[in-house]
């Protein structure tokens, strides 16, 4: 009986093995079809998303670096521009100051020239007035001394000689 049991056990074992093998193959096909492919697709999509995110982050970091360099260049340019503006303002102020000083000198010279001209005119007016007064006084004196009226040419000669004496005495002072 033992042999029968052994044979039955062997045949039962072979049947069980065959059943387990068929069940495993069916289960593997079902897992492949319903689980393995969706999981593989999901993992592939996740891998692509992570790769895309890393590429996007790298691109953003590169863009941020470029923007940083642009801002630094703009800051440097603005500093140079500010220095240029200050330099131009200083030059403009200096030019304006020089223009004002030159204008003041010009006006002072003009005032001085007008004052000299006015003084010269006043001197000439005074000399003419003195000449007229001296001429009249000379005529009056000459009339009293001589006792008669002088002729026009005598008066002119007397006046001219007196003016020459006045000019000579005035120039020596």
TrEMBL record:
Any Pfam family hit: ATP-synt_B
HAMAP family: ATP_synth_b_bprime
Residue spans of biased composition, Polar residues class: 109-121
Family: Belongs to the ATPase B chain family.
Organism of this sequence: Bombilactobacillus bombi
Topological relation to the membrane, as annotated: Single-pass membrane protein
GO MF term list: hydrolase activity; proton-transporting ATP synthase activity, rotational mechanism; proton-transporting ATPase activity, rotational mechanism
Annotated region described as Disordered, given as residue ranges: 87-125
Gene Ontology CC annotations of this record: endomembrane system; plasma membrane; proton-transporting ATP synthase complex
Keywords per UniProt: ATP synthesis, Cell membrane, CF(0), Hydrogen ion transport, Hydrolase, Ion transport, Membrane, Transmembrane, Transmembrane helix, Transport
Identification of the protein by name: ATP synthase subunit b
Chief location of this protein within or outside the cell: membrane
Classification via InterPro entries: ATP_synth_B-like_membr_sf, ATP_synth_b/b'su_bac/chlpt, ATP_synth_F0_bsu_bac, ATP_synthase_B_chain
Subunit architecture: F-type ATPases have 2 components, F(1) - the catalytic core - and F(0) - the membrane proton channel. F(1) has five subunits: alpha(3), beta(3), gamma(1), delta(1), epsilon(1). F(0) has three main subunits: a(1), b(2) and c(10-14). The alpha and beta chains form an alternating ring which encloses part of the gamma chain. F(1) is attached to F(0) by a central stalk formed by the gamma and epsilon chains, while a peripheral stalk is formed by the delta and b chains.
Subcellular location: Cell membrane; Endomembrane system
């Amino acid at each position: 009986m033992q042999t029968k049991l052994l044979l039955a056990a062997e045949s039962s074992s072979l049947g069980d093995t065959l059943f387990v093998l068929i069940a495993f193959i069916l289960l593997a096909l079902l897992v492949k079809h319903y689980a393995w492919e969706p999981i593989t697709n999901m993992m592939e999509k996740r891998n692509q998303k992570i790769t895309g995110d890393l590429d996007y982050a790298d691109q953003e970091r590169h863009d941020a670096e470029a923007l940083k360099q642009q801002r630094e260049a703009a800051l440097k340019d603005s500093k140079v521009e500010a220095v240029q503006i200050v330099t131009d303002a200083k030059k403009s102020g200096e030019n304006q100051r020089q223009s004002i000083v030159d204008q003041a000198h010009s006006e002072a010279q003009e005032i001085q020239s007008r004052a000299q001209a006015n003084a010269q005119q006043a001197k000439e007016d005074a000399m003419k007035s003195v000449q007229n007064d001296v001429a009249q006084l000379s005529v009056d004196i000459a009339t009293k001394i001589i006792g008669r009226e002088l002729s026009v040419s005598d008066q002119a000669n007397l006046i001219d000689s007196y003016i020459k004496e006045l000019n000579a005495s005035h120039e020596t002072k």
